[in-house]
Design brief:
By secondary structure, the protein is an all-alpha fold. It has one domain. The protein has helices spanning 5-13, 18-21, 27-45, 51-54, 59-75, 80-94, 98-115, 128-137, 151-159, 164-169, 181-193, 197-206, 208-226, 231-241. It is elongated and about 60 Å long. The mean pLDDT is 91.
Length: 244
Amino acid sequence: MAVHFDEVLFVISIDCFTEYIFSGFSLEDVQEVKAAAREEILTILNGGNNYYMRANFSEERKNRSRQEFFTKLKNRNVSSALQEQIRFFEEILDGISDDLITAISEITSVASRFYWLNTDKLTTPITDELLELSAQVEHLGFSSTESTLDWSQIEEIWFNSTSEWDQFLSQEEMFDGITDAPCSMLNKILNFSSQLDFLYRWKEYLGEERYALIRRFIIAESHLEIDSVNPGAAKEIDRIMTLC
């Protein structure tokens, strides 16, 4: 996946995109991530300001950049959940796998049956606690959007940023005249990850302790249904639910 990891570094380094991709993570961890990403980008640019002209696009370099970045996060004690979020962005930008699509679909299906209390289509019993939680999130809805931001909003945020780093990346030379290149990167991430934004709403409203009951229920039921059918997607379920 190192092919698209440079794009991940760019998008996570940007100040004006932070609140849209790192909501819910500690500011301290996010700042460490951005600092590490910027260090790697400056190394890749090798003293220049044109990514396409200055970067070494060999697989060896791209793999090294990825490895060095995650080593820095580990050394800086960045949370494993935030590191997993970044790997999720990488998978999105690299191209969505069938296993990931299936996992998202399964999670959505189980969550839907929980929300609508279709107990006859569930194997895992819904306890009294879960019944109460279902009632509490009812007003929040069970829906997702194509993106939390449309293209024009993303561009407006990007081109109006006054951050010194953002302005450095927005130079016309940086992406060979494609000044909205980072907008495309963010748009891909938001359009896919927003499919489960209803879970983030539930979590924010209930708090981690109460929401954890719903998370465990979704994971348990999803595994019962998919483990023997699609082991690859089953592994993705655990990874995705650590982020939701």
